[in-house]
Amino acid sequence: MDVSNSMLQGGYQAVLEARSREEFRHEVIRFAQGLGFSTVSATVVLDHTVGESEFETVDNTPESFASTYSDRSSWRHDPVVQHCKRQSVPIVWNQNTYLASGQASMWEEQARFGYRTGIALALHLPEGRHFMLGMDRAEPLPKHPGELTRLVADLQLFAVYAQDAAWRVVMPREPEPNSNPTRLTPRELECLRWTMDGKTAWEVGGILSITERTAVLHLNNAMHKLGCTTKHQAVLKALRMGLIR
Predict the structure, then answer these.
(1) pLDDT tens-digit map of 17-37
(2) Around Cβ 159, how many Cβ atoms within 10 Å?
(3) Domains along the sequence of the chain with CATH
(4) What is the pTM of this model?
């Protein structure tokens, strides 16, 4: 178990430090396979105007299935894609997911290439940015609720790290002039530092001799100033900006 946890922790850091698209792809595939998934896709989406978005996908889709898999016209019928488009909670899918939405033939087609079940999620970020991550395999997922919950949690945390790297190496954007550099208060920085160490808001409050509610307030303020939607994203951005170490 310790070896597995060490592998996961190393995977988070490795994908965060990816310096190129190919290196990012390698780390995403390595992490997915370490969790027991044969195929994986990571997609960044940038909305420009209503109905117009820019897509970039990094994956290891089998060559024989690549053209079908990348056909975005079919995405509007795919229940997994539609779930990710509308929600931020992960979806654990299998044949029943497609049967329930009237897309049995779609599942049968992809199942021939090993896409029988999997887990997918999307992170919807400020400024019209979205990050989708899906891991798939032919073998059934664990039936034990605890094991499945752990898989979903590992995927969620990895997605936070992966999306940060993806915007840097998969769809980089020109930095915008910033005449008002982000300024966090000492308390906000302290809360981020302890969050980085895995402490909950309740634990942070105890360490800093403040209430849990006040700790949450500091974290929310930091997230707002950094333009992030979760405390984990705020920690990563603060690290990248050199605000915490």
Answers:
(1) 999 999 999 999 999 999 999
(2) 23
(3) 2-169 (3.30.450.80), 186-240 (1.10.10.10)
(4) 0.73
